[in-house]
């Protein structure tokens, strides 16, 4: 037989009490004051089986709409299909606790009232709207030494994937030569998609013309 999916199925860890929080329930649980319209968190206490809500509502936050002798009426939103409906449930006091979701809002209201009272006493008008944090203020960097950086001239070695020493030697020969053929040869060497056979042919032709020039002298 397959495992059943009852009302409290798969809640062994969900409804388990916290570590070192087992035992008798604190008296403050029953002495809290809940008011209609307040926010509460539904947190199931596995030690109390009476008034236990369904596992869906565990960990949900809702508003109090009714207060009875031993239970609290909580209004919780539940998504059913493509709509969100409001569910009114009664939960025993052991399974609810005051929510802190509106704590920041209440503190901000108190702070805004204080700021408005101070501004009114000074005869000023202020805005209590929250503004996004702007950029950081500028500052001067002290104790820094300036250094002028010059970019390295483009080298065709990486594109040709050849021997650096061989290319450097050829470059020295071409740069040191006063032959009129140098500009065209170096232009072909720097041309994209140049192949090693083409470079060899150009070097050979250059050497021949340079030798003829030296012999003619």
Describe this structure in words.
The protein is α+β, with helices and mostly antiparallel strands. Helices cover 33% and strands 16% of the residues. It has six helices and five strands, in the order αβββββααααα. The chain has helices at 28-31, 103-122, 157-160, 164-176, 182-190, 196-216; strands spanning 39-42, 61-67, 71-80, 83-92, 96-98. A five-stranded antiparallel β-sheet has the order 4-3-2-1-5, with no helix packed on it. Strand 2 (61-67) and strand 3 (71-80) form a beta hairpin. The protein is elongated. It starts with 27 loop residues before the first helix and ends with a helix.
Quick structural gist:
InterPro entries: Ribosomal_eL21 (IPR001147), Ribosomal_eL21_sf (IPR036948), Translation_prot_SH3-like_sf (IPR008991). 33% of the residues lie in helices and 16% in strands. The protein is built from six helices and five strands, in the order αβββββααααα.
Write the layout of secondary structure elements.
Elements: H1 28-31, E1 39-42, E2 61-67, E3 71-80, E4 83-92, E5 96-98, H2 103-122, H3 157-160, H4 164-176, H5 182-190, H6 196-216
Antiparallel strand pairs: 1-2, 1-5, 2-3, 3-4
Helix pairs in contact: 5-6
């Amino acid at each position: 037989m397959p495992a059943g999916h009852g009302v409290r199925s798969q809640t062994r860890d969900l409804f388990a009490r916290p570590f070192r929080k087992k035992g008798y329930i604190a008296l403050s649980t029953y002495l809290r004051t809940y008011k209609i319209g307040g926010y509460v968190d539904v947190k199931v206490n596995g030690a109390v089986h009476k008034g236990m809500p369904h596992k869906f509502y565990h960990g949900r936050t809702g508003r109090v709409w009714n207060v009875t002798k031993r239970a609290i009426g909580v209004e919780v939103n539940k998504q059913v299909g493509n709509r969100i409906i409001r569910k009114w449930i009664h939960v025993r006091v052991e399974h609810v606790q005051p929510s802190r979701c509106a704590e920041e809002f209440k503190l901000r209201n108190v702070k805004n009232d204080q700021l408005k009272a101070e501004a009114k006493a000074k005869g000023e008008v202020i805005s209590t709207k929250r503004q996004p944090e702007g950029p950081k203020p500028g500052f001067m960097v002290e104790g820094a030494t300036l250094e002028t950086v010059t970019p390295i001239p483009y080298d065709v070695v990486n594109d040709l994937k050849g021997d650096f020493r061989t290319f450097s030697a050829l470059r020295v020969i071409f740069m040191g030569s006063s032959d009129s053929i140098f500009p065209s040869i170096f232009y072909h060497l720097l041309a994209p998609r140049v192949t090693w056979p083409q470079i060899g042919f150009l070097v050979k032709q250059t050497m021949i013309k340079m030798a003829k020039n030296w012999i003619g002298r």
